[in-house]
Design a protein that fits this description.
Blueprint: E1 26-31, E2 45-47, E3 69-70, E4 73-74, H1 75-83, E5 88-91, E6 115-117, E7 123-125, H2 131-141, E8 144-149, H3 156-167, H4 173-180, E9 191-194, H5 207-219, E10 230-233, H6 242-250, E11 257-264, H7 281-288, H8 290-308, E12 315-323, H9 342-357, E13 362-368, E14 378-381, E15 384-387, H10 389-396, E16 404-411, E17 415-418, E18 421-424, E19 426-432, E20 438-444, E21 451-457, E22 464-470, E23 490-495, E24 502-505, E25 509-516
Parallel strand pairs: 1-21, 2-5, 2-13, 5-8, 8-9, 9-10, 10-11, 11-12, 12-13
Antiparallel strand pairs: 1-16, 3-4, 6-7, 14-15, 16-19, 17-18, 19-20, 20-25, 21-24, 22-23, 22-25
Bound molecules: alpha-L-arabinofuranose.
Alpha-L-arabinofuranose binds next to loops.
């Protein structure tokens, strides 16, 4: 993305005016040297599960649909996702993966069996989207593939045969079957998950038991040299450390990554999670305040991994994250339909900052989920589609894909507090983009108060900044099918004057800047 080519719709950065004159600005210094780790572009990964209309309807409409499509995948959604440069796509679940049998999803579509999706709504699963369709989608998006194998109800043999079907270029009958089904060359399989949430829907296991299963199953996750996926062990959730501890200590076989999941629920209560819109300020803060806890947990996970894996061969994949609210009234609760507001965009940007900060170990993260489910990028209704605020947060952060993280020095960051809840008002992350330019991402989490900043680069005031701002008047501002442009990034810039570059970050905003030395 070129931030510089955007039309200057709005100049939001202002010199400190009377409003903030009494408050000393937060001093923010970007330290260009020494450079930190690379921010793996896979941190901006996506997740598409067979769940509600996350795949069927939202992405896949079938080749005979009146909705314009490419080999069954809807063109409008594809075009939007291509603009996000989706680096990696996880499929087919989630919980669904542990009841998915890959042979159901190959061969002529009208001959494929119909199963019941017992994880999500008990609805028929037509298997119209299977292996060939998924890899076609990933190739069209230019995304790496992350396939989650079925440990819960499958067998090591079934898993091994799926991998052979996908990756073999030889004369064996599985490769021949793939060719007969229309794909001559093997696909590239980048990441291979062995089970999902083994502590829950994947089988309610203890980490010690799963560690043994992982040792067993990973032995048979074979693929030809040059097309060996990274093997991903299913890890823990929330504040847990135990899964990472046991897996990194007890598995001596190849383990390329350990996954971890955490969702942000406004109430923290799975029975009454909180509303996606019309929420009180307390729920704005409680939703966002999950992210500092992720930060603390990742610091602990990294410390324990450094003990068991000092050579840093094992990555952390944060392969499910995002907001989880009460289902939209009138929808099937098993479909996880929820609205998406400014709060979600702010939440996404806070996650990005934390993943950048832990880029040394966190090599992938996957928002849940890509279309129509939970914190989605795109919401569809029949032939129509709308881009969510979360979509815009992802798009604004494109310069951070494969960028080099830089150290930031922050002074005098105020706390945003409400009752017993509090978090820093400002979150910031800086990097040198793959294009060599300097980028800065800022989030002001306070829903009512702007924040004054004084920016420097290696102690020197930059000449200018320019970029994009996402904000709105209401905490729960959203894009709808009838008002799809209510929230979209606005371009702006500011220049130094008299040796100062003071900025004002509006309340509840996300700002991504290119910093010009
Ligand atoms: O993303 C929805 C579900 O959340 C996934 O299927 C599961 O892994 C997690 O519990």
């Amino acid at each position: 993305m070129s931030l510089l080519r955007l039309p200057l719709v709005l100049a939001f950065l202002v010199f400190s005016g009377p409003l903030l004159a009494a408050t000393p600005p937060v001093q923010l210094n970007i330290q260009p040297d020494p450079p930190g780790p690379t921010i793996a572009r896979q941190i901006y990964g996506q997740f598409a599960e067979h769940l509600g209309s996350g795949v069927y309807g939202g992405l896949w409409v079938g080749p005979d649909s009146p909705i314009a499509n490419t080999r069954g995948w809807r063109n409008d959604v594809l075009a939007a996702l291509k603009d996000l440069k989706v680096p990696v796509l996880r499929w087919p679940g989630g919980c669904f993966a542990d009841e998915y049998h890959w042979r159901d999803g190959i061969g002529p579509r009208d001959k494929r069996p119909v199963r019941i999706n017992t994880s999500w709504g008990g609805v028929p699963e037509p298997n119209a989207v299977g292996t060939h369709e998924f890899f076609d989608l990933a190739e069209m998006l230019g995304a790496e593939t992350y396939v989650n194998a079925n440990l819960g109800t499958g067998t090591p043999q079934e898993m091994a045969e799926w991998l052979e079907y996908l990756t073999s270029d030889g004369p064996g009958s599985l490769a021949q079957a793939r060719r007969a089904n229309g794909r001559d060359k093997p696909w590239r399989v980048h990441h291979w998950g062995i089970g999902n949430e083994a502590w829950g829907c994947g089988g309610h296991m203890r980490p010690e038991y799963y560690a043994d299963l992982y040792r067993h199953w990973s032995t048979f996750a074979k693929a030809p040299r040059g097309n060996r996926p990274k093997l991903v062990a299913s890890g823990g959730q929330n504040d847990e450390l135990n899964w990472t501890e046991v897996l990194s200590r007890d598995v001596k076989q190849r383990i390329d990554a350990i996954s971890h999941h955490r969702y942000s629920l406004p109430t923290g209560d799975w029975k009454i999670k909180g509303s996606a819109i019309g929420f009180a300020e307390r729920e704005w803060l409680s939703t966002l305040a999950v992210v500092p806890r992720i930060d603390a947990n990742l610091a602990q996970q990294r410390a324990l991994l450094d003990r068991h894996d000092p050579a840093r061969k094992i990555a952390l994949y944060f392969d499910e994250w995002g907001s989880w609210y009460d289902p939209e009234p009138g929808t099937d609760p098993g479909f996880l339909v929820q609205r998406n507001t400014l709060r979600d965009a702010v939440l996404a940007a806070l996650h990005f900052h934390v993943f950048h900060a832990h880029a040394e170990r966190v090599k992938m993260a996957n928002v849940a989920q890509m279309v129509n489910v939970l914190q989605a990028m795109v919401i569809t209704s029949g032939p129509r589609m709308v881009l969510t605020p979360t979509y815009h947060a992802f798009r604004m952060h494109l310069p951070f894909q494969d960028a080099t993280a830089l150290t930031l020095q922050l002074q005098a960051v105020p706390r945003y507090a409400l009752g017993d809840l509090a978090m820093p008002q400002l979150s910031a992350s800086a990097a040198r983009g793959a294009d060599g330019k300097l980028y800065l991402s800022l989030v002001n989490v306070h829903p009512r108060e702007p924040l004054a900043l004084a920016l420097s680069l290696g102690g020197v005031v930059p000449t200018a900044v320019r970029g994009q701002l996402l904000t709105a008047a209401a905490m729960d501002a959203e894009n709808t099918l009838d008002a799809p442009e209510r929230l979209r990034p606005q371009a702006f810039e500011a220049r130094a004057r008299n040796g100062r570059l003071p900025l004002e970050l509006p309340a509840k905003s996300v700002l991504v800047l290119e910093v010009l030395p």
